[in-house]
Amino acid sequence: MSRTLPRVAVFCLSACALCAACLSAASPAAGPEARLQLKAAPDKTLSPYTGYTREHWVEIAGRLIAGFLPYFDKDTGMPDFRGTDAESGHFKHTPGFTGESRNAFGRTMILASLYSAATGLNTVPGYGGPLNGPYLTGIIRGTDPEDPAYWGPTERYGAFGNQIAQAVMYCPEYYWEPLSRDQKERLAAWLRVLAEGVGFECNCWYFNTAAVPVLERYGYPYDCDYITEKMERLLNWYSGSGFFIDGWNRSYDYYNFWGFQMFNLFHYSYTDPWRAKFGRAIRESTAEFMESFPMYFGSDGAPVPFGRSLSYRWAAVCPLGYAEAAGLGTLPPGMERRIASACLKHFWEKGAMSANGLLQVGWHGPNAMVGEDYLHRGAPYWASVGFSPLLLAADHPFWTETEQPMPADNLDRVRVVPGAQLVLRTNSRRGEARLYPVGSPRYYRPEWDTGNKYYQHAYSSALGFIGTGTGKSVELAAGRSGVSLDGRTWGYRHQPAPGFLSLYHNTSVYSADLGAGKEARVYTNTLILGDGEVHGVYHDYPEPLYIRVGGYGIAVPHGAKAAQAADSDSRAVRVSARPYESLLKILEGPAGRLEMVEVAPRQGWNHSHLFGGTGAFPRWTSSAPVPPKTLVIFYNDAARDEALQAPEVKISPDEMDPGLWVEVDGRVSFFELF
């Protein structure tokens, strides 16, 4: 087997029985490590769910700043995070050091400016010297063409510079006013090149627009018509429900949170001409977005992990602070803080700040399995925008109102988000949020695990997903369905298009690559239940095809081994690794093979599951090719600390139309054959 491929082990029904030793593997520690413990005292009266107050937010921001400032060069003011990798493989595919250093400079500068804006301080505990010192040095030298440390003009398609503009607007007293007149003019000239430059045709255009409020406020010239046209085009990508299609990426994901919503609200607050011109569109799209926003988070604060750039972590909550700062908050402030504090607390206590004091590519701690080629060593500091609540005064209701429950605390709710072609569901008993990408038009990049990140039938805040890292990644059946001509080359769920979206019954169609230039249309049905889902899959290819379906992938601690318990009579297989269990049960379909698949990290990567460790999932494959328009119906669920039970499901044919009736949880749905 090639050294560049993941080690994937398959265990069939007869291969192993349920192993008690596997189930007794140690679960993660209950509390944070000593280095992550905070001095701020929990306040269970004001914050009965999280205990977090504004003091916790300020302290964590300060701890992060004190962690990265020692990596800044005192002469140039530029950071160097090299030599701090927890894993090696991912960084063989990222850009060079110059780009890494500049973006580390800019993204950390956002956090430094928010901290100073909130506290009025230019110092931070644990670091000697002025907080703004490295940044002013970097700006002064980097924008001076006569200086050896000159950055050069803004790069074509470059992102660097938008962060500097943000910092100037958040805290001008430390990041603008200390500059001399000449230094301000050089910075303004440098930002003008950014504003009038070229960006990738997606949310990246916002990097160009971010320079405008600085130029506008301080009276420097720029091509207003050119950059305003970009802003217009960005807003014209609106698709409804508070979501924007991400340009050429064609995706719906967290870039709607920390890209479109964030920058629209930034401009609403700081760009007067654009607030007058685009204010109504921003107000309306923000209000629609906030209607579904609380349902993306589990009660432990974890956002549903879905899509790319997950290393930005708590940046997912940034719209809350920006909306309140713009006067456009629509949710109860107590609920907003409950969501935001839970998210920050979740990642902080799970070890987001590494032992070296840095945020690194990963989800909880370092985990390059979630990397992309643009996620350099400084990239995770886009999490800085998640500290947007620090823009709010200490007496703002966001900080002073008592925490209120969010949906995952006390509501079993399903919500359709048609503008993003997805459905959300919260399960209060489990404290879980799930996301169903009924349609997912994301541009396909197989080398960055796009299939695993975007095309599963469902994603869970409590479960995460399995992946194999960068390079030409192996496509996995975990959480997906697929078909094959020969049983060896598989085409899995890929860029699904929605048939219809509803609260409980949703349909999709996708084109599966069979190899040799052949494709098959595959149709899926999904019934969203109280616990788990019932799915139906069939194809309309003129020849019989093998069909395969995969269950939820679960995390297996390093040193432990997943176990399976399978029952041929009930056509079900369970995969367990404490505290998780995943269940896949075939309800209707031909004979097939049930098995457990284990996925180990590839060389250069430490993990193959988002939560760390290795991954395992249940899988079923038809024993023989399945004729077209033959439904395979299965139940799928996974959970923490729970023995799963499949519900009673009644399946019957229709007397007139092709398809099957499925009755479950008191509802009857028709899986139609088109």
Summarize the SSE layout with pairings:
Blueprint: E1 8-12, H1 20-23, H2 54-68, H3 97-119, H4 133-142, H5 162-170, H6 172-175, H7 181-195, H8 205-209, H9 212-217, H10 224-235, E2 238-240, E3 243-244, H11 255-270, H12 272-292, H13 318-325, H14 333-349, H15 397-400, H16 407-410, E4 413-417, E5 422-427, E6 432-436, H17 450-454, E7 459-460, E8 481-484, E9 491-492, E10 497-500, E11 505-515, E12 518-528, E13 533-539, E14 546-550, E15 554-556, E16 563-567, E17 572-577, E18 580-588, E19 592-599, E20 614-622, E21 632-640, E22 650-653, E23 659-664, E24 667-672
Antiparallel strand pairs: 1-19, 2-3, 4-5, 5-6, 6-7, 8-9, 8-14, 10-11, 11-12, 12-13, 13-21, 14-20, 15-20, 16-17, 17-18, 18-21, 19-20, 22-23, 23-24
Helix pairs in contact: 2-3, 3-5, 11-12, 11-13
Classify the beta-strand content into a percent band: 15-25%
Share in helix: 25-40%
Annotation field: number of helices: 17
Main structural class:
alpha+beta
| Overall form | globular
Number of beta-strand segments: 24
Give the assembly state of these chains.
Answer: single chain
> What ranges have pLDDT less than 50 throughout 5 or more consecutive residues?
1-5, 11-30
CA-CA gap between termini: 41 Å
Largest sheet strand order: 10-11-12-13-21-18-17-16
Report the major sheet.
8 strands, antiparallel
Give Rg in angstroms: 25 Å
- Integer average pLDDT: 92
